[in-house]
Amino acid sequence: MAETLAPVKPGRLIIDGKAVDAASGATFTTVNPATEEPITTVAEAGPEDVDRAVKAARAALDGAWSKMKPIERSRVLWKLGDLVLEHADELARLETLDNGKPIFESRYVDIDMVARCFHYFSGWSTKIAGDTTPVNPSLFTYTLREPVGVVGAIIPWNFPMIMVGWKAAPALAAGNSIVVKPAELTPLTAIRIAELALEAGVPPGVFNVLPGKGRIAGEALVKHPGVAKLSFTGSTEVGQHLMRTAADSLKKLTLELGGKSPNIVFADADLDAALKGATLGIFYGKGEVCAAGSRLFVEKSIYDDFVGKLAERAKKMAPADPLDPKTRLGSLVSKGQMEKVLGYVESGVKEGAQLVAGGQRQPVNGKGAFVQATVLAGVNNRMRVAQEEIFGPVLSVIPFDGVDDAVAQANDVPYGLAAGVWTRDVKKAHTVARRLAAGTVWVNMYNFYDPGMPFGGVKGSGFGRDLGEACLNEYTQVKSVWMNLE
User: Is 177 within 8 Å of 76 (Cβ atoms)?
Assistant: First the structure.
């Protein structure tokens, strides 16, 4: 267990290339949700620290970072990706201690994505360019694509390490500097990656990390006039607040918010594959995944049989010690999150859903925020468990009758982040994918990501994109230059 391993050093703020204490001297304790034991103390950033970090980021942007050739910036980011891989075991352990996710996911899924983000976007450092536009023979007109400036990144507790890669890699590749505000519950890997960035050759001040409370450090970052752009991943409610607050300084925004994603299984699908995909879609990451396939739509003709098999699979997924490499269902991130999830299960049953698997807390060694893999059958799309984001290992299974009914129900939700389609009919797959209101549609697969493919939502799931070439538009701005040749 975690308490028998080497102790974790206290976390400090990373400002201007140095590990420092908060100006106020305040600290907080980060807790292992699987054991309910303290991991270490962490410096708690306040408004004065935000101001220091933003000013350091601006100075670095005006100095060494902007003077670095794109090829040199590329080499630094590639080196950072290499260092993430070299420190994979250390980073994975920190992530699992902080978040409660299985070490298998931290070590063999998350680490790979973080490293690939820095490797992928390192290549873009030399390829961000403007255009010439022949508007008039007597003029030379062209555009420059420039960094926006200081980027504020506010990241969530469900994928703290991956989110650093998703946001820092493209921001730095485009020539910006960044101030990262990790979630209070999970600050450790963001701090460590910032330390590795310095080792990779990122100049002091370019990559700053400020652990602390969202309502204090996060709010100060949103309001700071020196921050040109905010990239936020989190709840829709907080995203709406950030949008209102950022309006005062007209900051550029990228908001990747909540989801209630439909995973649609047609009767003509490969049902064994769909069964595995439905399981992965909701129970990977303990269901604490924005794009989790938390609404499973199953065609009526196969509904009862499919639900029965799904329940059998769920019952075999017992929560266990997250540090055990064999564990596939870890602890939720906190006791509070566990209570929220269990409250939704109770709500679903009261509204008429049938609990066919799980639905209970299941401590490991008498402790931890562990919740069983849960399946609710007979769910109506108007129930709270079908309309609100639960953010836990709870699957609502909803019957449908034909393509039109599937699409109508799938889109009848405030969110639009992701969706899944399972069918052997190629025409049906493409048709349904076009009709779904979602930023990502997986066909005969679920929960796959790559740095080269953009990710983001529509409707209540936000706007803007992380990853892919498309996200670079979020971290750059276009300048038009006119030159008179006469």
Answer: no
Strands 27-32 and 37-43, by their bridges, are: antiparallel
Based on the domain organization, do 334 and 356 belong to the same domain?
yes
Q: Find the catalytic residue in 44, 184, 256, 474.
A: 256
Measure Cα distances from 267 to 106, 274, 303, 357 in Å. 35, 10, 9, 23
Eight-class DSSP state of 351: T
Task: Look up 290 and say whether it is catalytic.
Answer: yes
Q: What one-character-per-residue DSSP string does 459-476 give? A: GGGEES-BSTGGGGGGGE
* Per-residue pLDDT tens digits for 1-21: 344 568 999 999 999 999 999
pTM of the model: 0.97
Give the other-Cβ count within 10 Å of 62's Cβ: 13
Give the CATH number for residue 406: 3.40.309.10
**CATH number assigned to the domain comprising residue 18:** 3.40.605.10
The conformation of residue 109, written as its DSSP 8-state character, comes to: I
Catalytic site includes residue 471? no
In single-letter form, the type of residue at position 366 comes to G
Residue of 105, 219, 288, 290 marked active site: 290
